[in-house]
Amino acid sequence: MNTAQPETIQRLDYTVPSFLVDHIDLTFDLAPSATSVSATTRFKHNPASDSREIVLNGQDLELVKIVMNGRTLEKPDYALDHGELRIPNAPDDVTLVIDTLVRPDKNTSLMGLYISNGNFFTQCEAEGFRKITYYPDRPDVMASYTVTLFADKKKYPVLLSNGNLVDQGDLPKGRHFAKWEDPFKKPSYLFALVAGNLVCQEETFRLADGRDVLLQVWVEDGNLDKTPHAMESLKHSIAWDESRFGLELDLDRFMIVAVSDFNMGAMENKGLNIFNTRYVLANPRIATDQDYANIESVVGHEYFHNWTGDRVTCRDWFQLSLKEGLTVFRDQEFSADRTGSDSGRAVKRIEDVRTLRQVQFPEDAGPMAHPVRPDSYQEINNFYTVTIYEKGAEVVRMYQTLLGRDGFKKGMDLYFKRHDGNAVTCADFLAAMADANGRDLSQFELWYSQAGTPRVKLESDYDSLNRTLSLTLSQSCPPTPGQTEKKPFLIPIAIGLLDAHGKEIPVRVKGSDNASDTCVLELTQEKQTFTLVDVPEKPVISALRNFSAPVILEFEQTDEELLHLLANDTDSFNRWEAGQRLAMRRLLELTHAVRENRPLTLDKPFIDAFRTVLTNTSLDPALRELALTLPSETIIAEKMDEIDPRAIHTARQFMRKTLANALEKEWQKAYKNNLTDGEYRPIPQDAGKRALKNLALSYLLLCDSTDTCHMAIDQYRQANNMTDRLAALTSLVHSGCMQKLPEVKELLEHFYKEYENEPLVIDKWFSLQSTSPTTSIESIRELMEHPAFTFRNPNRARSLIFGFCHNNMAQFHAEDGSGYEFWAKYLLELDRINPQVAARLARCMDQYKRYVPSLRQPAERALKQVSKQELSRDTREIINKTLS
Ligand code: 0A1
Ligand code: ZN
Predict the structure, then answer these.
(1) Which of 209, 437, 657, 825: CA 20 to 30 A from 415?
(2) What is the pLDDT of residues 200-239, one digit of tens each?
(3) pLDDT at 187
(4) Each residue of 543-560: pLDDT tens digit?
(5) Which atom of ligand 1 is least distant from the CA of 263?
(6) CB-side exposure of 209: number of CA atoms within 13 Å?
(7) C-alpha 302 to ligand 1 mean position (Å)
(8) C-alpha distances in angstroms, 179 versus 111, 166, 176, 432, 435?
């Protein structure tokens, strides 16, 4: 903890390690209050370095002994300060034996070695290994590992680490051991161990090359009925990486372990992936369709890291997106392919873009904006961001858009050929893509180095005489912290044209021989005009198809044009986009009207367009659900210079209520026509129907005329799956039925009792209340007193506190500032327990400078109050940047 300015690490300060490691042999004697760790490490001087000093990182360690080439070192043979152990003047070959003691039971940060429900787990990315032993804890030092675990056999019957199990046995006094060997060189952040009382589902699986591998999913006793979906997802992931990228599993054994206390989603430790339980455990009773989909995608993500992250890793943490952007892109493509249909792929794409806009665009426009490859950081844990992950994935997707699927695959092949077994940079990835395709992609580098969301303006001019359409594209990018001037990006803009009947007009760029329904224009300059030829009539332009670049498109189109696209575009993404733009126009106008106390109205053409979508049964239910869901409050806020959260909420609620009443009959019909009777199946077709039906229910609960609360109550009671049950309860609570009907309160209690022993469902119980516009801050405070609430479990803390601060605009931004005071109080409490999670909570205030003055003041007061306190380095960095 400190109040001073933390040190800033600069990307350009990178220097090669002075010593490399070829092997480390680790021994753990596991006990909660004192685990002894003995590390024998073989170092070799790095010929590329002038330095002769061995530099090891260490944090919260008790150093017992350090022996170099057989000689015990005493100070001043070595120096120890600022978390670094330095040994000067070391010879070429050094073997160090270092004994340390750690205290897992006192570790609430969930980094390094810690205890969850009595079992041992580790988390080493990014810099957790230094909490286990002194070591060059940096990703460009790659070594092979052997790990021997000793523990009490009764308490810790299962002992796991990376790689292959090579020995195990019983020892006197009820103890036992297991020895693991990982033949692949890896950085320390990929090390893992797990020890405890766990059970597993296991299967042997045949790879494409005929090899049989052992797959295991480890969970706490009593959860084996919840592992089959994760196991299926793992098998699908393995098969997909073989067929799409020709990448095979390189180990004989692959393990997934679920842990309930975990800071993030999951971790790709070599051969021993450790997961937050919420991304493993599923059965119809406890998991929603969304949970099933998330599990498949996270299992895929971690598995795909085996090549993009583990075999080829990052040279330094500034290159984080090298593995994360690429792996997110891979998991997105996996999930899209798994849907098995074009509309399924479109649904996935729309969901991904929605997340990007909901979270990444605000980040890129706020105080924490940073390039996909940042230039500096104070705390690396703060840089596991949507920019690194989701924008990084968009950057990777653009290679595929520019080079085609085959060209992209060629680039991947060359990347592995060049860099397998090494720690490399984003520039190496770019070079592989460019070289494999014989293209100069030097301008593309700006996507890594420049922060901010580019704006692209499109102006069109149709010449009926020459049958040409000229498209003038211009780009700009707003300033971001530390970057005032931006150079023009290389931006792929996918364009299509529709005629008056909604048919595609082939797109042909002047001077080119090919015509296609969708053409990718490459914008490289600040302003550029493209001429399209053979355009027989003035078309309706479908621009930025499938969201071909992570930009904000400024293109004025009339309501009629947008309605035409909504009805006819063959690009499902843009069809959805047209609907969102029609809604957004009105939502912005309504928000102004709320602020100016003007009457609120909604026009008939818009309501009719909504009706048409709702009743268009030839359109996939999942796509209809997306089209009928209004842009979120956060996305609306992004479009406003000055944010008035409650006005936005009021405007959006008005629109929902108006659409509910105007289309009541249609919603009723959609509800009835999309029931999924019979056994629950978490497949996209059924999930899409449930999504549409439950959206209909949420609209119906807003109708004035009939009492639909009972419909929702019946759905809750009759549901055979968590998706329908939770949707009914959520709508009942959020719509205000709870205030009208005492039965709803009973259902809420019933839900708690029914799932008392399922922590992941109790998280849902907390979040459905914390995110409700009907839940006052007093009720939130009451919920914090609930015996099931704890700060120590990140999922639980997130379900209540983040739910309220991040996802309850109407209540969090109370005029009297009570929401912000609440935030400040619990941020400080959380920061003492778990800095990483606290720093994420700190991000709620990112946008405070854009709030209306009446909110800006209390927000600033809360921020300053926090700033005066002693803070972790994690939270300090966020608070300082927010206030600066
Ligand atoms: N590499 C993981 C994310 C991750 C990062 C840091 C962690 O420490 C608490 C945990 C996980 C991934 O991308 O899945
Ligand atoms: Zn990842």
Answers:
(1) 209
(2) 999 999 999 999 999 999 999 999 999 999 999 999 999 9
(3) 98
(4) 999 999 999 999 999 999
(5) 9
(6) 10
(7) 9
(8) 23, 6, 11, 38, 43
The residues pairing with 516 across neighbouring beta strands, listed in sequence order, are 507
- Give yes or no for residue 265 CB within 6 A of ligand 1: yes
Task: Look at residue 706 and tell me whether its pLDDT is greater than 60.
Answer: yes
> Is any ligand 1 atom within 6 A of the Cβ of residue 238?
no
Q: At what angle do helices 604-615 and 621-628 cross, to 10 degrees?
A: 160
Whose Cα sits closest to atom 6 in ligand 1?
A: 125
Q: Is the ipTM of this complex over 0.90?
A: yes
What are the beta bridge partners of residue 159? 195
Residue 138 near residue 149 (C-beta atoms within 8 A): no
For the CA atoms of the chain, what is the radius of gyration?
Answer: 28
> Cα of 268 to ligand 2 centre, how many Å?
7
Largest CA distance in the chain: 94
DSSP category for residue 693: H
Closest C-alpha to 576, from 589, 567, 585 = 567
- Under a CB-based contact definition with an 8 Å cutoff, are residues 540 and 489 in contact? no
**Confidence (pLDDT) at 4:** 64
Taking the C-alpha atoms of residue 817 and residue 801, their distance in angstroms, rounded to an integer, is: 16
To test the pocket of ligand 1, the residue of 267, 328, 379 to mutate (highest count of ligand atoms within 8 Å of its CB) is 267
Report the interhelical angle of 777-785 vs 818-833 (nearest 10°): 30
For position 53, what pLDDT does the model report? Answer: 98
% of the chain exceeding 90 in pLDDT: 98
What is the pLDDT averaged over residues 435-447?
99
Residue 146 CB contacts under 8 Å (≥ 6 apart), including other chains: 23, 24, 25, 26, 166, 179, 180, 181, 182
Residues 312 and 411: beta-carbon distance below 8 Å = no
Q: Which two tokens stand for residue 83?
A: 């978390």
Q: How many helices (H) and strands (E) does the chain have?
A: 30, 32
Position 447 scores a pLDDT of 99
Q: Three-class SS of residue 144? A: strand
Does residue 838 surpass a pLDDT of 80?
A: yes
* Residue 98 CB–ligand 1 contact under 6 Å: no
Distance from residue 482's CA to the centre of ligand 2 (Å): 27
State phi, psi for 839 to the nearest 5 degrees: -60, -30
Q: pLDDT tier at 738 (50, 70, 90 boundaries)? A: confident
Structure tokens at 211: 């090899």
Residues in the chain: 884
Sheet containing strand 212-220, edge to edge, reads 198-206, 212-220, 253-259, 272-276, 266-267
CA distance 293 to 231: 13
Instruction: Supply the pLDDT for residue 707.
Output: 81
The amino acid present at 266, given as its one-letter code, is: A
Nearest CA residue ID for atom 2, ligand 1: 267
Cα 291 from chain centre: 14
pLDDT band at 705; cut points 50, 70, 90: confident
**23-34 pLDDT tens trace:** 999 999 999 999
Q: Are strands 212-220 and 253-259 parallel, antiparallel or unpaired?
A: parallel
Q: Which amino acid is at 468?
A: T
In tens, the pLDDT along 845-870 reads: 999 999 999 999 999 999 999 999 99
Residues with Cβ < 8 Å from 67, sequence gap 6 or more? 73, 96, 97, 98
What are the percentages of helix, strand and coil residues in the chain, rounded to 5? Answer: 45, 20, 35
Using alpha carbons only, give the angle 388, 394, 395 rounded to the nearest 5 degrees.
80
Residue bearing the CA closest to ligand 1, atom 8:
125
Which bound ligand lies closest to the C-alpha atom of 393? 2
The answer, yes or no, to whether any atom of ligand 1 lies below 6 A from the CB of 109, is no
CA-nearest residue for atom 4, ligand 1, is 267
pLDDT digits (tens, 9 = 90+) for 292-306: 999 999 999 999 999
pLDDT at 6: 85
Compute how many other C-beta atoms are within 10 angstroms of the C-beta atom of residue 341. Answer: 13
